[in-house]
Amino acid sequence: MKRGKQTCRILKEIRKQIADANDIEFITSECQFKGDCLGTCPKCESEVHYLEQQLKHRQMLGKAITLFGLSAGAIALNAAEHVTVEPNINTGMRTEQMNNMRANSVEETVLIGNTITPKPKLNKKKKSKEATDSEDTTLMGMVEQQPSFPGGQAVMMEWIANHLRYPKQYVEGGVTGKVIVQFTVDIKGRTRDAVIARSLDSLCDREAIRLVLSMPRWNPGTLNGKKLPVKYTLPISFKY
Length: 240
Known about the structure:
Layout: H1 2-21, H2 42-60, H3 129-135, H4 153-163, E1 177-185, E2 191-198, H5 202-213, E3 221-223, E4 226-228, E5 230-238
Antiparallel strand pairs: 1-2, 1-5, 3-4
Helix pairs in contact: 1-2
């Protein structure tokens, strides 16, 4: 267990260094996992997924992505593989080398809370469509296909730009910054259960929640060919 916790701390520091190198706000906390965490507990996986999303966002904006002193595979760990951090790697790993990152990384985590909640078993004869919609929201695991905005990330960014309402109170004087929203994409592609993971201002927070909940239906995540709810993290920038 001691070795596992040490590995977890090292990987947290690696993620923090990557975030700092790419000007990504990244707040980490001590792992509370009771078992022998190798950097693949639910808390660690949620940090990995947030960092991946931020790096993808920067790449979409045409910004260079820098990984310092490690292989891309060390950013996000496959739960079934041994962890390896490679020394003396070129410190200037750039955008074009990020295309293969996802193949080496942990898949999208279905994260509800901080505990693993097994999916309840129901009698198939009694299982209704409504039950399917709700019970899967407590499932935690790894998805094969992440939920995606219809048309892709670029279309989503354009949709956000066209539908974001900057609070009128701040038109003069201006409040700028970023709100981070966590929400669930359910099996029907609806966005729901939106919460603020990082606040900017009460008005901006409310607008970010409104924006997320008004999104068109996404393509839901899947596991073993079955649709399931997936928790998603999205940064929304407010600039005037």
